[in-house]
Amino acid sequence: MATCPRHAPRDPRRRGRAFWPRWCLAAAAVVGGCLAVAHAQEPTAPDDKEYVLKAVYLYALGCNTHWPSSAFAHPDDPFVIGVLGPDHFGAVLREIARKKTLQGRKIEIRHFASLADFRRPCQILFVSGDLDPDQQQTALRELPSRGLLLVGESPGFLEDGGAVTFYREDDRVRFTVNADAAKRADLEMGTQLLKLTEPADQRHAAYGGVPSRKRPRLS
């Protein structure tokens, strides 16, 4: 079972070119297997590719964020990635959990159909954009934030207190980080991760600031 790779030092021969940390390459390697899983299922979901990429990003967030020791009650507790609301990931997240670890722990995937079903422990909680808007607001307002990385895909998610949101740009899935929200949750994001995103206050016009709740899909 593979673990998150360590960050590689910068190669001076590659000065002036984009630098991709090793975890990006490891995550990219996961994509191939996850796409195979997605295509092996019945072709009923046109957004398979979008959610494969989002699943890999969730793994990357887990690799490059530091959780306090209090986030785990026991040394052998799993690293829990939860999905709140309609789950569009199919088997992809579970395929990652089968092949990878996070923070030296096995990964466990949990689905919470509604906010009333949510239970700790949970280290990353993905809030589906198809969850009832009132439940999304309640989740951001009332869930204990310490040790919980809240990730969403709805307009205004960061402004409402979320730590990470996914958005579309040039037919690609990208993400924006609200570092202040992560700090309030006692989470520390790695510098390599922050280099691949833009601060929330520079991305209001992108996905997190789109007023419509209709989310564009990858073709």
How much of the sequence is in beta strands? 15-25%
| Class by alpha and beta content | alpha/beta
Distance from N terminus to C terminus (CA atoms, Å) equals 32 Å
Helix-strand sequence: HHEEHEEEHEEEHEH
If you had to describe this structure to a student in words, what would you say it looks like?
The protein is 29% helix and 18% strand. It is built from six helices and nine strands; from the N terminus they run ααββαβββαβββαβα. It has a seven-stranded mixed sheet. It is globular. The two termini are 32 Å apart.
Structural descriptors:
globular, alpha/beta, 219 residues, two-stranded antiparallel sheet, Rossmann fold, single chain, seven-stranded mixed β-sheet, disordered C terminus
Short description:
With 219 residues, the protein is α/β, with parallel strands linked by helices. The chain has a single domain (20-209), classed as 3-Layer(aba) Sandwich (Rossmann fold), CATH 3.40.50. The chain is built from six helices and nine strands; from the N terminus they run H-H-E-E-H-E-E-E-H-E-E-E-H-E-H.
Helices and strands, with pairings:
Elements: H1 22-40, H2 48-63, E1 65-66, E2 79-84, H3 92-99, E3 101-102, E4 105-112, E5 124-127, H4 133-142, E6 149-152, E7 164-169, E8 172-177, H5 179-184, E9 188-189, H6 191-195
Parallel strand pairs: 2-4, 2-5, 5-6, 6-7
Antiparallel strand pairs: 1-9, 3-4, 7-8
Helix pairs in contact: 1-2, 1-3
